[in-house]
Design brief:
This protein is of the alpha+beta class. It is built from four helices and five strands, in the order βααβββαβα. The mean pLDDT is 90.
């Protein structure tokens, strides 16, 4: 089947919702009704692209790129990729690779000097990202969770 990548629009929300559900654990997913507004807000955020891979008219993989302004590297932006996900029945068929390549092209077209991402320790994605050229040689990824109950 033919695979095509493109930036998602609000009309892709139902497919995106299925992908977010495949990515999210517990109750972190917003309700379907409230999610549409949040998805529209995400898509309209300056510097943000949600790229999807479509197969047979269905979005089977997606990831979000945030391009952020920067004061170093001559003011060139940097990118942050989040929420990389592929539907279970579409894994291993090149859709996530295509999405990541399309986002790298988007960042490069915006003159970004780097793209960063974090991946969970409990999955097999690290090797996938390394095959795409990402590495952990220069920096350590760290997070501060602000949403944990005390």
């Amino acid at each position: 089947m033919t695979l095509s990548c493109r930036p998602l629009t609000v009309s892709d929300y139902a497919d995106a919702r299925q992908l977010y559900a495949a990515l999210s654990t517990g109750d972190s997913l917003i309700s379907f009704e409230d999610g549409l507004g949040a998805f529209a807000q995400l898509l309209s955020h300056p510097g943000t692209t949600v790229m999807g891979a479509a197969q047979a008219g269905r979005i089977v993989s997606m990831a979000t790129l945030h391009l952020m302004p920067n004061m170093t590297y001559h003011g060139r932006p940097f990118g942050l990729i989040e929420n990389v996900v592929t539907l279970p029945d579409a894994r291993g068929k090149g859709s996530a690779r295509a999405v990541m390549a399309a986002l790298a092209e988007t960042a490069q077209a915006a003159s970004a000097y780097k793209i960063m991402l974090l991946t969970g320790r409990d999955n097999d994605a690290k090797g996938f990202y390394e095959r795409l050229g990402y590495n952990a040689d220069e920096k350590h990824g760290m997070i501060l969770r602000l949403d944990r109950p005390s």
